[in-house]
Amino acid sequence: MGKKWRWGVILDAGSSGTRLHVYQWKDPEKALKHASAEDLHSLPKLATEKEWTKKIRPGISTFGDKVEDVGPGHLQGLINHALKIIPEDKVQDTPIFLMATAGMRLLPKYQQTALTSEICSYLQQNTRFSLPDCDLHIQVIKGETEGLYGWIASNYLLGGFDHPDSHQHGKGHHTYGFLDMGGASAQIAFAPNATEAEKHANDLKLLRLRTLDGSPAEYRVFTTTWLGFGVNQARESYVQTLEDRYAAETNTELPDPCLPKGLRTSLHGDLIGDATPAVSTLIGTGQFDECMQLAYPLLGKDKPCEDNPCLINGQHVPAIDFDVNHFIGVSEYWHTTHGVFGGKGDEAYDFATYQQRVKDFCGQDWSAIKSSIGNHKIDKLRVAQEACFKASWLLNVLHEGIGVPRIGLEELRKANISKTALEHAKDRGFVDAFQAKDKIDGVEVSWTLGKMVLYAAGQITPISRDDRHPVGFGSNAEGTPSDFQFAGSTWRSFNHHGNNTSDDDGWDLDAEDILDKAKSKSTTGFFAFITILLLFLYIFRKRDRRMRVYSRVNAVLRRPRRSGGGGRKGSNPRGLSGLATKIFGGRPSGGAYERVMEEGEADRFELGDVDSSDDNEGSSDSSDGSRGSSRRLGLSSGLATPQITDHHYHHGLASPTVSALDRSGLVVRTESRDRLMLPPHLALSGAGRRSRAGSPTRMKSPLMSPLSEA
């Protein structure tokens, strides 16, 4: 698919099964190059396809007692499916997440830990997907987190983030609420109006996103969950109330108004024939109004409310302003309203119409329902037998629990909704207080999409270096709160004007690391200068060391005049020599001396060979042996004088005329004036010459080693 695409894999581990989701989006650097003005102010554009999802049963919570089987026996099939979609060369850069929901939340903590640990180990050892942090990538997420991800997905697909002006619901509100119901839990997430947001600020979550141009986007969202209030858990609670209600009776047949008339099942929902004996049997009466009445107490509306206001089960929820809070319902909200009871092409939810359809269906004899479905379609039969209770539960939760106005009976005021929003949403029903949805613009509304949107937004570089706020969510507080949940992605620096022409994928760096490096860049040079200065002062703290270097510098700077006359063009030996004297503390002017070589004498000398020591081994790859090595060391350190040979100088030093030094370049600094005044025969014999072998400082300056490595 090319280097410009990024991929992500999420495994939604629910109570009834595990579903694979694969998402794709353009690399932020590449997307920025050709982005329009609208794109720059939008979140990354994610894509998925129907074939990129796959669900298997049962849920991973059933592996609580056999954790070693969850990888090869459950997850491997989903992994294989993902590998058919994602290009092989992108697998290693593709993050994989497994996030378990209500089914796993019901397990004991030790089983949760054992399962998540086994899953992470299996994925790390048997796949090449990116999984650097087990705690971040393999989680049992809270219901509040699941709800927040769903809120992100809904608003992302509806355009509430990217086009707020087109989604003004009134009172400056432009986002949609989110409702989700699974088998074991139900979630709600919404942004309260300004008054409620201020009143309940401590109850809100701070959400941080980032648009393609690097601009931050913050939202304050309330989210909560009701564990045990999913349709399957609610059904179990309902059956228990029937058992308690008829416990005193000897009759083993328990009338169930939430089952179609004549339907017989076990307490666990298994179909039972007329002649099949059972200890306790549920027999349907098809009385939907009575079903609604029996399901209502399960909402827990009589539970004490410790923090007003409360909705279901005594749980605090800020007051919902349905004038501006329009909710999208997914999962069971969609399946229950658009499954058995959905009309052809019927999109908008209407309470009066829906309730009548439910009553008509549930009042039928089971035999008539079976005949219309067909006995061989077991899955559809199961859906049909559960449909009446699910419908009664959904209606109770929506209207009695959450308080959604009964559309069709209780009209919602639309005076505060902008005309633009009405025109944009009128065909979809999004101006209503509640709308059940499965897909928006062909993309499934799933909380997993919200998680991946957050991850993709985290790959975008902040527009400002001062923006140190990461993408993610946490408590509604300034800065980065201690409970902040990071997006899990990293961003890399890029040119915000889209001038980066590299086609290669760069190395992702952590946002904090890059910002720290950016800030320290300006001080790096200063500290380097101070370090070099201190090293310089340490080395030359003694006079003999200063004099050694001075002698070498003086030998180069104080060149004799050519025999032909004037000095070298542009040279000023006295001035430079004086500067060197000031720096290195030279001898008094009266003691200075200069040996002038005869013409033609220069070819008898080579200057500045530096003895090789252990510290310098391996510092040269020259093929000239030790001589070439010492020459390179001298040149790189700046302390050795270029050698004079019969060859021309590769450094452009044309004149062979230099100060008089012996082969080691040490005569000036080691021999006294008395030594120079000796008769020729004594001078040549070396009389009066001090030995250098015992000198502790003989070319052992610590400055040589580090500078030679430069």
From TrEMBL:
Belongs to the GDA1/CD39 NTPase family. GO terms for molecular function: ATP binding; GDP phosphatase activity; ribonucleoside triphosphate phosphatase activity; UDP phosphatase activity. Residues 619-637 have a biased composition (Low complexity). The active site is at E146 (proton acceptor). InterPro entries: GDA1_CD39_NTPase (IPR000407). Residues 559-592, 605-637, 679-710 are annotated as: Disordered. The keyword Transferase does not apply. Keywords: ATP-binding, Hydrolase, Membrane, Nucleotide-binding, Transmembrane, Transmembrane helix. One of its GO terms (biological process) is CTP metabolic process. Pfam families: GDA1_CD39. ATP binds at G183, A184, S185, A186, Q187. The chain crosses the membrane at residues 523-540. It comes from Staphylotrichum tortipilum. PANTHER family: ADENOSINE/GUANOSINE DIPHOSPHATASE, NUCLEOSIDE-DIPHOSPHATASE MIG-23. This is Nucleoside phosphatase family-domain-containing protein. Residues 608-618 have a biased composition (Acidic residues). One of its GO terms (cellular component) is Golgi apparatus. The keyword Amino-acid biosynthesis does not apply.
